[in-house]
Structure prediction request, 269 residues.
Amino acid sequence: MKIIGERINATRKSVREAMEKKDIGFIQKEIVLQVESCANLIDVNCGSNPQAEMENIEWLIKTVQEVTNLPLVIDSSNPEVIEIGLKSYVNKSNTGRAMVNSITAEKEKIERILPLVKKYNADVIALTIEEKGMPENARERVDIAKRILDIATKDYGISADNIYFDLLVRPVSTEPGQVKEFLESIGLVKQSLGAKTVCGLSNVSFGLPNRSLLNSTFLAMCISAGLDAAIIDPTDKNMMAVLRAGEALIGKDEYCMNYITSHREGKLS
Ligand code: THG
Prediction:
């Protein structure tokens, strides 16, 4: 499973302040922490204030790319910000494709963002939301994913391999039946569409105590269901320990080498 480090997000007060002050040291320290914690990609989110987002994204990407070659996940609901982000992203020789986070099934998002995904040869996260709202069950999630997949591949020439579906897990505190529907939809999307899946794990524990326990238990369930990528805080030791144990148990860690190495490095306890 690919780990997308979520710490550079302006919803976090310390990050928001660092962006306002253009505090390069703070941002780069957050990056190094995530790289050392084995993140595979880095999510960058400049918040929800359109003006601030536009001003900050280019600076942020430059600041991040000074200290890591990991691919970046450009996290914004604003197509203009995504475009500036893709332009600013430097695809170095050993850097992977950028990832756009995100589109939905909504016409406007698709028409504005998918041409950019194609032009810049990026990957894209597609949220299974449509005009009429959020899906209620596994089947609806898969139906929306199929619609997006068809449009992306047929109308925009984007390879299915470049698309990750975010099947939208909802807080278990308010919607207890939704985790089961979510997990089921992972299997269905993989089997019936052959597509990849991603998820922001911490949504599941919203409003409950000891979120790290719920998030890491949920991570184990997602590994079992075949989730391909997770947006998490990689510095959360519980999460990374469960990731290593889970992948070893499901046969995604040859000779349990990652598990053993993590143990030797003291990362499992
Ligand atoms: N799917 C996709 N993208 C996403 C999400 C998703 N991007 C944003 C988010 N969800 C994932 N990223 C974060 C980043 C930081 C935090 C949570 C999710 C975080 N939250 C603190 C908390 O919940 O306690 C609050 C912030 C603070 O004040 O520190 O740190 O689902 N595709």
The longest helix spans residues 138-155.
